[in-house]
Amino acid sequence: MSLIVIYLFYSFISQQVPEPKQDPTLLIDSTNQIIQIEILNGSGIKGAGAKFTNYLRKNGVDVIDVRNYKTSSLENTIIIDRIGDIKASKKIAQLIGITEKNILQQINPDYFVSITLILGKDCTQLKPMM
Q1: Residue 84 — φ and ψ, nearest 5°?
Q2: What is the pLDDT along the chain (130 residues), one digit of tens a residue?
Q3: Is 117 helix (H, G, I), strand (E, B) or coil?
Q4: Judging by beta carbons within 10 Å of its beta carbon (0-12, 13-18, 19+), is residue 118 exposed, middle or buried?
Q5: pTM for the full predicted model
Q6: Which DSSP symbol is given to 125?
Q7: What CATH number matches the domain at 22-129, 2.30.29, 3.30.2320, 3.30.70, 3.30.460?
């Protein structure tokens, strides 16, 4: 009998405790998940990836990985939507100051990130570098 009383008490208390809310400063996508991105530096500009990482993290984006792209001569910065959430990609484009025409969709369920940001030589003219 005491086990039933303890179980009922526990059930009542666990329903009364509010769930912790997500940090309101983090950007979320349309599925209510935190936007997670990887940054690939294809600009050839040393330290560009680190500057973008700091800027995006200060603006609530969860930067998962930063590394060099396969080439260092990419002209334009591009955003690649990996999960089919174009709204999240548009948020990132607006945040860094590129046009929506630089957003591509390459949906891949094997990726662990929502978005891939590939920095081009034009990154010096974008908000994080100013």
Answers
A1: 85, 25
A2: 777 777 666 666 666 545 444 454 667 776 677 899 999 999 999 999 999 999 999 999 999 999 999 999 999 999 999 999 999 999 999 999 999 999 999 998 888 899 999 999 999 999 999 8
A3: strand
A4: buried
A5: 0.79
A6: G
A7: 3.30.70
